[in-house]
């Protein structure tokens, strides 16, 4: 992922009001963030833990989404819809995001199950245990990284169908 400035981050959010953009707290490690190994940048707000932020480059433009964590328990072990990791070292929670524009103001939202602290980029880069003799671990990792990018772009386009 390409590095972003604070101004670019605040301007990238499709579904956040100007007040929400101004009030968002950047990640604690923003100054030392390693952008190279990320498919997207995602973090939970340290002052408002129910809020989460995700920014990804989609069609050459940084696009951000403000998520809200939905309280409640998932009855069985959930799988993240983005990284699809079956050996998750972290929790998966339910997030909702209001759609941009008039649809969002009318209460239209989109929901998904995601890693609680948006660890998907790290999860897809972990070496998977060999499934069988001759299993190509590096090819599987590359496939998972590509699938994550597809899932991110698909979610962004579903969120805002008119995305350029």
Describe the structure.
With 164 residues, this protein is of the alpha+beta class. The protein has one domain (6-159). Helices cover 29% and strands 21% of the residues. The protein has 5 helices and 5 strands. Strands 1-2-3-4-5 form a 5-stranded antiparallel beta sheet. The chain starts with 5 loop residues before the first helix and ends in a 5-residue tail after the last helix. The relative contact order is 0.17. The model has no long low-confidence stretch (mean pLDDT 89). Residues 8-157 form the Elongation factor G-binding protein C-terminal treble-clef zinc-finger domain.
What is the rounded distance between the termini?
A: 19 Å
Q: Strands across the major sheet, in which order?
A: 1-2-3-4-5
Number of alpha- plus pi-helical segments: 5
**pLDDT below 50 for ≥5 consecutive residues: which ranges?**
none
Oligomer kind: single chain
Largest sheet, if any? 5 strands, antiparallel
Beta percentage is 15-25%
Q: Output the helix-strand order.
A: HHEEEEHEHH
Q: Tell me how many strands there are.
A: 5
Compute the number of structural domains.
Answer: 1
Derived structural class: alpha+beta
Task: Give the helix level as a range of percent.
Answer: 25-40%
Overall mean pLDDT stands at 89
Q: Cα-atom Rg, whole angstroms?
A: 16 Å
Instruction: Tell me the overall shape.
Output: globular
